[in-house]
Amino acid sequence: MADANAQLRFWGVRGSTPTPTIENLTFGGNTSCVEIRTADDQCIILDAGSGIRNLGQNLIKEAGGQNIQAHVFLSHFHWDHIQGVPFFAPIYGPKNEVSFYSGIQGRPLQETLEGQMAQPYFPVKFDQVAAQRNFHTIARDGVIELGSARITPFELNHPQGATGYRIEVGDAVIVYATDYEHGDPRLDEVLRQQAQGADILICDAQYTPAEYETHRGWGHSTWLNAVQVAREAGVRRLFLFHHDPVHDDQTMMRISEDARMHFENAIAAWEGFVAVL
Asked: N or C: which end of the chain has fewer CB within 10 A?
């Protein structure tokens, strides 16, 4: 990493399905993937949507033949959050080590990820890749420490469950809360507690308030609710995330402007954006 400061970079910001179309070039069409690089060069990856492919290529170029260590924290296992795993080039390097983490209890994490690369879905089985793979299911009250970073999982309201993460890197706090639907009082409060005082909140904002009326129970929230969470939790910066596939660049610009009318430091995340922590 060229910069000695910790950095956050968006590699995929879209929800549900990739949308690589000309009308989405400004905000991007890849599905969820965020990279946090700490000052001590820990590579923390949030979700493995289609955006993780470009991240993997960048890691290989940056490593210059040296070994790569990466830590992939998954919010859940819906397709748009794991579909990039087979195309994440570092898993094919014998010198590399890739660790996967999940807060979803139940079916073993390794078994879940191997399923999407089983025949006839993919020509290479997940247990045949060259890199060392590690799998960690985090307890509800568990904490993962990676160098200077401390990662705390928390439960989100989403069909079949999802996990948010509070990442403390030095003095900075990033909260990742995608695939979350407001309306569950207990889990709404959990999110507000975890987001309290955060420097950056990355929050599900798939729908407009009007669209949400016909999408209740689908597991996603609105830009207006994201703004409310940011205000109530005293967040410094809000990134709207998990953009709906039908929201083109013009729509996203309007949503971003509407959000800023309610919270000055709100913005819709776009691919390639880098925030120095």
From this structure: N
57 sits in which H/E element: helix 52-63
Q: What is the CATH number of the domain that holds 18?
A: 3.60.15.10
Q: Write the pLDDT tens digit of every residue in 174-199.
A: 999 999 999 999 999 999 999 999 99
pTM of the model: 0.96
Inside any domain, residue 189? yes
Q: How far apart are CA 158 and CA 191, in angstroms?
A: 13
Give the residues of the chain that fall short of pLDDT 50.
1-3
The one-letter amino acid at 136:
H
Residue 2 lies in a domain: no
Both structure tokens of 135: 């799998």
Residues whose CB falls within 8 Å of the CB of residue 175, separated by 6 or more in sequence, listed in order:
164, 165, 166, 167, 194, 195, 198, 200, 201, 202, 203, 235
Its domain, for residue 213, covers 7-276
Say how many domains are in the chain.
1
Quote the pLDDT of residue 3: 47
Determine what percent of the chain falls in helix, strand and coil, rounding each to the nearest 5.
Answer: 25, 30, 45
